[in-house]
């Protein structure tokens, strides 16, 4: 009998259908429910994009008003969630806070105990928007706590992106900053069966609840081969210092077999479709903050990586320095990714529940052959 073919890392394996987004490396495109992500990033709010991912269509005017009002009404953190956050040592990574807080929200949701409370689509729609509204509050509360600053309460006269920045910094920055932030959220919102979304789908496939699936997804996103790369890019920039040192730094890093964070992708081998849009937003920020030096470093490392390895940047490469310029702490970058991706995760959880099959692949055993105890 021949051994079955192993697809390590599930590379190239198609495990299910999805109607939520399509990642097309051949045409270098990413479509959310059929719409090119670049068009959405140019014309839509993050709220509209979340609505689209969940409902399959963009909201009409009345639908958007109702949706925005609901999201704005769900932004205040429960004291019990604040206590969970306060209990996480500040030495722990902010993604640990996000993971614990999402888990706590599940524990607080009594409707999970109702008959069919886990799977009811209406309840899950409500939970998805609740998580979307709560995550900025969690992330902002935690960054301020780490800086020794008092929490800033949400404002219901601000859209999602502005309110997020308001809660984090206690002021709403200039439109160029708000816009770059909104663009990053739209680009981060969804990306088919990436590792964290697949994790969410695996958990949902056991008919576990939405909060458990999102908690697991947060854990998967934390790793530096996935969402953790945006902060790792910033650590690399800090190590390199300036554009003229990029080549030598890269040669050293490659010689010691380091992975260069923010480069490469499992699906896109000729460049990530989202990078040009995010890079344009980063360029505007660099101009706004008079940081041509950072843009020069970005370009120098990208060029050197192209010359040495012919490997192109992924979305985390422009997002990392863009979030730095906006004023976020480096360890907060991956929580920002999580706040945006919760839209995609919850859309996938709903899709998984709607046509579920337990996700349980096979493995090829390569341990000891059968043996017996001598007792
Ligand atoms: C938004 C996101 O989550 S995008 C992903 C963010 N992650 C990162 O930026 C982390 C850095 N990148 C990587 O580690 C990889 O490119 C991954 C994990 C994203 C994709 O990896 P895979 O599809 O499994 O490709 P794999 O790791 O096998 O790479 C193929 C070859 O390119 C090399 N390579 C790929 N990416 C990099 C990189 N960033 N730095 C150095 N070498 C790299 C590998 O070492 C490998 O070389 P080899 O064939 O000589 O061994
Ligand atoms: O698709 C992937 O493997 C990783 C990625 O770019 C994302 O999740 O946005």
Automatic annotation (TrEMBL):
Pathway terms, separated by semicolons: Carbohydrate metabolism; tricarboxylic acid cycle; isocitrate from oxaloacetate: step 1/2
Catalysis performed (reactions): oxaloacetate + acetyl-CoA + H2O = citrate + CoA + H(+)
Single GO term (MF): citrate synthase activity
GO cellular component, one term: cytosol
Keyword annotations of the record: Transferase, Tricarboxylic acid cycle
Biological-process GO terms, alphabetical: carbohydrate metabolic process; tricarboxylic acid cycle
Keyword DNA-binding assigned: no
Active-site feature positions: 265, 316
Membership in a protein family: Belongs to the citrate synthase family.
Name of this chain's protein: Citrate synthase
Source organism of the structure: Leifsonia poae
């Amino acid at each position: 009998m021949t051994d079955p073919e192993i697809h390590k890392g599930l590379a190239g394996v198609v495990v299910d259908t999805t109607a939520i987004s399509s990642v097309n490396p051949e045409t270098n495109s990413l479509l959310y429910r059929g719409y090119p992500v670049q068009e959405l990033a140019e014309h839509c709010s993050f709220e509209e994009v979340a609505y689209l991912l969940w409902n399959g269509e963009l909201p009409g005017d009345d639908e958007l008003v109702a949706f925005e009002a609901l999201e704005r009404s769900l932004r205040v953190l429960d004291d019990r969630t604040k206590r969970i956050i306060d209990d996480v040592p500040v030495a722990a990574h902010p993604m640990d806070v996000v993971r614990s807080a999402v888990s706590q929200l599940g524990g607080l949701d009594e409707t999970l105990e109702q008959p069919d409370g886990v799977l009811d689509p209406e309840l899950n729609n409500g939970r998805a928007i609740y998580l979307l509204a709560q995550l900025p509050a969690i992330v902002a509360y935690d960054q301020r706590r780490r800086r020794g600053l008092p929490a800033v309460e949400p404002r219901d006269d601000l859209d999602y992106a502005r309110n997020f920045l308001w809660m984090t910094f206690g002021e709403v920055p200039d439109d160029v900053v708000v816009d770059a932030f909104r663009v990053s959220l739209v680009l981060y919102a969804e990306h088919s069966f990436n590792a964290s979304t697949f994790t969410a789908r695996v958990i949902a496939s056991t008919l576990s609840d939405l909060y458990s699936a999102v908690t697991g997804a947060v854990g998967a996103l934390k790793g530096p081969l996935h969402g953790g790369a945006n902060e790792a890019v910033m650590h690399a920039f800090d190590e390199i210092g300036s554009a003229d040192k990029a080549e030598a730094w890269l040669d050293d890093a490659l010689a010691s077999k380091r992975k260069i964070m923010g480069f490469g992708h499992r699906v896109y081998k000729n460049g990530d479709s989202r990078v040009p849009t995010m890079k344009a937003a980063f360029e505007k920020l660099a101009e706004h903050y008079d940081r041509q030096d950072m843009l020069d470093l970005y370009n120098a490392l990208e060029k050197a990586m192209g010359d040495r390895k012919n490997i192109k940047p992924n979305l985390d490469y422009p997002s990392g320095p863009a979030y730095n310029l906006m004023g976020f702490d480096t360890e907060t970058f991956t929580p920002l990714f999580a706040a945006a991706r919760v839209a995609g995760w919850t859309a996938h959880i709903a899709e998984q529940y709607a046509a579920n099959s337990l996700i349980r692949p096979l493995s090829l055993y390569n341990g000891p052959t059968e043996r017996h105890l001598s007792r």
